[in-house]
## 1
Amino acid sequence: MVIEAPYYHQTHQESEVFLQTFQNRMPLLLKGPTGSGKSRFVEYMAHTTGQKLITISCHEETSSTDLIGRFIIKGAETIWIDGPLTTAVREGAILYLDEVAEARPDVIVAIHSLTDHRRELFIDKLGETVKAHKNFMLIASFNPGYQRGFKELKPSTRQRFVALSFGYPTAKIETEILVNETGVEQDIAKKLVAIGGKIRNLTELGLTETVSTRLLVDAAKLIQSGLPKRLACHVAIVEPLSDDTQTIESMKDLVDLMI
Ligand code: ADP
């Protein structure tokens, strides 16, 4: 069975950077706001390189134990179960730590020796050091905290990675993404992209996060499945961005003028 490649539109030579980083056995950090294509890019590159991909969505409770592994009691026995990081290190998979800055600090400590020339993982509970398989690759994503509410990554951690920035694609590319991803008409896709661009420029709205490609894709999907265009934009673009009545109203007015 041939598995189709996930759809990904390159925006800034990121495939080349990925391939060279992979060949040099370096870890990669993807920086950018939510919904900017980071995860899709990793899925696409894993497919392109034929690598197994293990994704961990980090949150405040994610600890090194969750990643490395733990002993569990099975009947009368205590057995060790490898966590996803250990599995990836042993088998040579791509480990993608999505939103790594959200995880507990011991996660950063655990991955340190994997991000330098040692490429090894120390499993303290087993007293064992595992050398990474030659194809093991560590990728982390991180949402730079320009705004309040996001955690930062320490410079000493960041400098262990090759880093790629993800932002908003050009209008032409973003229109193509909407058409390819949802089948929406070119003309509607263009309007959605224009709405996205306009709201992104309205810094006075004071949004914590602004319109991502994901939100535009969501609006296009709803339009494609029959929801009236303005309503689709209200629920997929405007409402997810703010809870402030006035901000919502201004964005809705703008949308209604543009589509
Ligand atoms: P992130 O991981 O940055 O939060 P995702 O990779 O989940 O974002 O992207 C959200 C959605 O946006 C994807 O499911 C896809 O529909 C769309 N998308 C964003 N950028 C691209 C791109 N360059 N090529 C194809 N689809 C994209």
## 2
Amino acid sequence: MDADTSCESPPLLVVISGPSGVGKDSVIDELKKKNRPRHFTVSATTRSPRAGETDGVDYIFLDTETFLEMRNSGQLLESAEYSGRWYGVPRSQVSEALKQGKDVFLKIEVQGAGTIRALAPEAVLIFLAPASFEELAVRLGQRRTEGPEEAARRLEIARQELAQVGRYDYCVVNRDGRLEEAVADIEAIIIAEKCRVAPRRVKLD
Ligand code: 5GP
């Protein structure tokens, strides 16, 4: 190998997206356990905390006025309205972690993934999909976090989100009871991306 050729890869910006109820949180929890130089962004939202959620850990919970102030002053890398609530990724978290050489993981819905693609074409976009729409419907129906009306609204949004898979780089299926396979697939994608001869270099400004 040429003396000045380096196989060091720059940090990745990884988007984990997909419909509500598909298991993004469970996948992210497993990716966190790997103890690698990674940052998992904590989004801002205007939705109310669920039982067991902690401000600053699960989300930064804000009132709408504060959220929109952050958004209008450019403090959010992307933001989207989902089921009547705002969600957005604080820009500073992403740029600081990338500067420190950490791979950054965003857990966002489909509109947000589209925004990131436009802002940072070098981001790695992974769509987490259910094995079937029916499996997703059962999972959303069984969740205790939403009432039946909200679950039905999320399922309707999911139908539209599933149609957007073609805009992603990768599709990983999270089958019922087989979380470890989905996590292994994502780790394999990260490894392959890090071994690219022409690495993706994310520029955000
Ligand atoms: P939940 O209310 O279930 O926590 O989140 C609703 C949806 O918003 C999920 O698909 C979740 O991944 C997505 N989401 C969470 N944070 C963000 C964010 O910062 N930006 C965008 N665009 N979506 C987000």
## 3
Amino acid sequence: MTVLVTGASRGIGREIALLFAKKGYQVAANYCRSGPEMEKLVQEAEHQGFTILPVRADLADHEAVKRMVQEVENNFGAVDVLVNNAGIALQKLVQDTTWEEWRNVFAINVDGMFSCTQAVLPGMIRRQKGRIINLSSMWGVTGGSCEVAYSASKAAVIGFTKALAKEAGPSGITVNCIAPGVIATQMNQRLSKEDLEALREETPLMKIGSVEDVAEAAFFLASEKAGFITGQVLQVNGGIVI
Ligand code: NDP
């Protein structure tokens, strides 16, 4: 079984790549700017006796994504599981958000998901099976003040997931998304200690989530056990949004 995980050089994507590798998958791990971090992941996997194939592509570049998926298929054959995890955040008032910033958030969070999905779909349709797992966010469900561009892009991920689930279901492909709450990664390092503590207190389970919490949910959605689940938003958020 082959999985392609985007944005796997750190954070949630890195953990998903490692978990799938440990579970016996052939893992292709996408990255863009963080070459040294990806090199560390490849080495860590090797120490643990697994092989991870690093594949570089800027997901905002549609042609580069096509070449990346071709590279994965040349090495491993068709992709069984695609995890559209790569994403960027933007914390700004909407009136301070530049057109370029708005476009960049959508280019990576939405266009990248579209390009990767479109590139792997022919292989999945041919084999009448596949799993697509998209990373949304609690802000895509509920909207976040000062995160309008990010929230809108993550709401688009949910719309994409639900529509594609209907379109691809007859081909034996499930499409779901995970909407994490606050997870301890570099993405949240911009938040002040006070803001992070406030979010922790707002979370009914009174803690910040871990990358493992999200990776386990992704692994479940990819498994045979989740075969009758499609078009869903799995909220891995400690109850902060219900
Ligand atoms: P990080 O910021 O830690 O990592 C983001 C990853 O995305 C990196 O591996 C980065 O790779 C990759 N990436 C960014 N731009 C591109 C690009 N143009 N092409 C390819 N890869 C790119 O994020 P998290 O691990 O925290 O988040 C992962 C996903 O989960 C995101 O979609 C995020 O929106 C979502 N999420 C996270 C939450 C959290 O609290 N952390 C909460 C809700 C959702 P590189 O550096 O190599 O470019």
